[in-house]
Design brief:
Order of helices and strands: EHEHEEEEEHEHEHEEEEEEEH
Number of domains: 2
Radius of gyration: 21 Å
CATH class of the largest domain: Alpha Beta
Largest sheet: 7 strands, mixed
Number of strands: 16
Distance between the termini: 22 Å
Helix content: 10-25%
Number of helices: 6
CATH architecture of the largest domain: 3-Layer(bba) Sandwich
Oligomer: single chain
CATH topology of the largest domain: FAD/NAD(P)-binding domain
Shape: elongated
Length: 309
């Protein structure tokens, strides 16, 4: 398919290269809409690119997040979607168009689909920033091999924390999962972690400090009930303590919920009717990859219907 823009104006600009963004761009292009996708990272896929084996995506074979993102990106190239690797810094209205600004370019478009997802929260304790990249990591898929045969700590009780622990378990001597209150992960992840001989849990605890001089050598924990302090020796710390939606580039007039996620209607339309939001950036997102893909399909279909009028 060969799409031709009119007067250097896009019909759709998708912000974000995760599964929601890739799906939105594909559906928009398939409907004949000139489409660009803008992603600040060199690697497409967003958070899913850190997952070794996807178990919440309908597929006939096991595949990693990187493989899925690469396959989807190839489809976009075949459908003449322009992919730009630059961070979006601003979106604003100019008459009947939207201007999407990066550091070096301005895209004029009729519609925007915000699929910028969410960023992992950092561990806000002494030592965490200083030792980032020196034992503190948020990607077991990327960095797990460096901790082969060593003890590591995973912080968090959600899906991401347990998924990362399960990636680390076959590589590391031991994996200790520090859980602040209770597990919120899918039962399948919980059962697999509990069955792993080298995985253990520390309950009702929070990290007070990441220890080390140049490289991580442990963490200091505080029991949330008794206040007692303990230390665990480890070579790596993997925090997965929630996410923050990436919405700073969107107009302030777009409504957010208390967590900062964008509020939309059932057609994924925001308070600014030419801007749509899908996936982890959106209030009410299910957290499932298939949910992000479904929302992207709805947004693209709605935009196609809008522009056909």
């Amino acid at each position: 398919m060969s799409l031709r823009r009119r007067r250097d104006i896009w019909d759709v600009v998708v912000v974000g290269g995760g599964i929601g963004g890739l799906t939105a761009a594909w559906y928009a292009a398939r409907r004949g809409l000139p489409t660009a996708l803008i992603e600040g990272d060199v690697m497409l896929g967003g958070q899913v690119a850190t997952v070794n084996t996807l178990d919440d995506w309908p597929s006939t074979k096991d595949e990693s997040g990187v493989e899925l993102a690469a396959a989807m990106a190839a489809k976009l190239e075949n459908n003449a979607v322009e992919i730009v690797h630059q961070p979006v810094v601003d979106v604003k209205r100019a008459d009947d168009l939207l201007l999407v600004k990066t550091d070096t370019r301005i895209f004029r478009t009729r519609r925007v689909i915000a699929a910028s997802g969410a960023k992992l929260r950092s561990l806000d304790v002494p030592g965490a920033d200083a030792l980032r990249g020196k034992g503190v990591s948020q990607c077991a898929h990327c960095d797990g091999y460096f901790f082969k045969g060593q003890d590591v700590v995973v912080v968090g009780g959600g899906d991401s924390a347990l998924q990362e622990a399960l990636v680390l378990a076959p590589l590391c001597k031991s994996v200790t999962i520090v859980v602040r209150s209770r597990l919120r992960a899918k039962q399948a992840y919980v059962e697999r972690a509990a069955a792993a001989a080298n995985v253990k849990f520390v309950w009702d605890a929070q990290v007070e400090e990441v220890l080390g001089n140049g490289t991580v050598n442990g963490v200091r924990l505080r029991n949330r009930g008794s206040g007692a302090l303990t230390e665990i020796a480890c070579a790596g710390v993997f925090p997965f303590i929630g996410v923050e939606p990436d919405t700073a580039y969107l107009p302030a007039a777009i409504r957010r919920d208390d967590s900062g996620r964008v509020i939309t209607d059932q057609r994924m339309r925001t308070a600014e009717r030419s801007i749509f939001a899908v996936g982890a950036v959106r209030s009410g997102y299910s957290g499932e990859l298939s949910g992000a893909a479904g929302e992207a399909a709805i947004a693209a279909a709605t935009i196609a219907a809008d522009l056909a009028r």
